[in-house]
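To assess whether ligand presence alters the predicted conformation, the chain was also submitted together with adenosine-5'-diphosphate. Input:
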Amino acid sequence: MPGSLEKLQVNNFRCLEHVELEPSPGTNLIFGENASGKTSLLEAIFVLGRGRSFRTAHRQRLIRDGSTEYVILGDISAGATSRRIGIRASRKEQDIHIGGRPAASIAELGDCLPVEAIDPEVHKLVEEGPERRRRFLDWGTFHVDQSFLTVWQRYRKALRQRNALLQQQALSQLNAWDEELVLSGESLTAMRRRFLDALAGPVAELGMQLLDSEIKIGFRPGWNREIGLSEAIAGNRERDSAMGRTLAGPHRAELVIELDSARARARVSRGQQKLLAACLILAQLKVLATLGRPRAVLLLDDPGAELDDRRVGALLSALADLDVQLFVTALDRKNLPEIADRVFHMEQSVPRLMLQ
Ligand SMILES: Nc1ncnc2c1ncn2[C@@H]1O[C@H](COP(=O)(O)OP(=O)(O)O)[C@@H](O)[C@H]1O
Ligand SMILES: [Mg+2]
């Protein structure tokens, strides 16, 4: 099936010394005892598509104790053929290969293997500060809008340069960067809005399905929305100069989530936060699917540990409507029997294919 991970090879990543896996393009269940390496296997797939982990920001922790580097390789089907992508990382360096040649950026990996994770920490998307939600928003926008990455990079560069000038109090040179900041920032924001417009319907639908609630998403662009970015930047100049950085702009954007009209972060329980976050992620994958993007991979780590059976059931039936390649982990095979196309048992950090 186009856009699925056909083969995976993992070397010296966490507890996985050498693992080879041939997953189904449909649903894969990985079960095994605690600390058998289930999450590590999902994490390796995530790193292959994102260049970073969902568990840690420290690359060193991903390298198997006693090793100097990890290597993760994946064969991604593309029509009749398949393409190999790979990431090799040591403490200091990381290099990426796609189809036998070095890739320029992590974003190219994402283009080949869009991957999302719903893990026991997923509630942080709702609970924590705006940064995670901005990353979520930008990952979705990147996949929907081909020009997003270039514009985002232009904005980051302009912001960096402008902040450096503010630090040096070189205010006479600001104009040169203000224009670029405003142009790229407005364009970035328009793309984010387009993505959120597409996301709103699926989010509302999934909210009903998973939470029996009305979920709404709102957007704050990162500056006073009554005025343009150009005015906001000009109006803030004195304060920016006093603070030594650019206060307002798309780098301060906020995705606001409301549940039955209450601000979600403040009101909901941990279990609801998890399902809310799951709604956002599934909605995002729905949007990607309707736009003909490469088929996504969804990693569902230990749903049974966090959610009661009824909620796991609701989550799985919502997933059934989505065309994704799914990897689910569980302590026990019995937990999720009916959904798997291929079942692997993790035995001391080695997944073994089970005959069903
Ligand atoms: N860098 C590393 N090198 C070797 N082992 C590691 C490393 N990081 C984590 N581990 C170990 O990997 C084991 C498996 O962890 P994990 O994948 O979380 O298992 P599971 O999800 O099955 O409970 C744990 O015992 C952990 O201590
Ligand atoms: Mg685990």
